[in-house]
Specification:
Blueprint (H helix, E strand, L loop, with lengths): L2 H8 L9 E6 L5 H12 L2 E4 H8 L1 H10 L9 H6 L3 H24 L7 E4 L5 H4 L9 E6 L1 H10 L13 H26 L2 E5 L5 H11 L13
Parallel strand pairs: 1-3, 1-4, 2-3, 4-5
Helix pairs in contact: 2-10, 6-9
InterPro entries: P-loop_NTPase
Amino acid sequence: MTERGINSQVWDPYGTLRRVLWIGGGQWAGKSTVARLLADRYGLTAYHYDYHDARGHNDRRIARRIKLGHSPADPDPEATWVNTTPQDMAAETLAGFPVRFEWALDDLRALVSRHPIIAEGWGLRPELVAPIIDSPRQMAVMVPTEAFRDRQLRALTRAATIGHDLSDPARAQRNRLERDRLVADDAVRSARRLGIRVIEVDGTRDARAVADIVADHFRPYLPPSEDRSP
């Protein structure tokens, strides 16, 4: 076990990490929706990685840039999205996940809940989660098919925009989509190597049906359902 894994297990003052159920995988696979449905159904405490990573961790991100001798300002959007390649974008994203995962673990350790916690997000990587879980059934990896990713791009405004005024927004979007595919493919390879279940989301099932599949996978760790719907 790595030093990171040992530290993650030793300092867990409320025993939170032992009760976390993890959903990792690719962007636009419906991870947040499934986590919310399961939280409602079973009375779980939900942790949305993307929300905390984009907001609550920004001060730590800036401090880390300064520590490494970089500018505290966000990287130039043109360099980040346009004047680059998807391969370089994916490599940079994957290289940054371990540090960002430690920040997520700090958030989770601080939670006090009598219920299991369901944590979801693309930065919850199988190779990072595996050292701190007792069984592969405490994690699932959700990835979209190409067709479902295209459907999400048409249906979700936030999926089709980057949020910067760029010189070549079409190229930036192509770069991002290919980066997302490469990062998702890496998650699948890692999960299969570690014996963690991969759930491919193709759009033939609605969100509740996908949540049923994930719930069945997590069954040994879930409390009785609190769902009162007919």
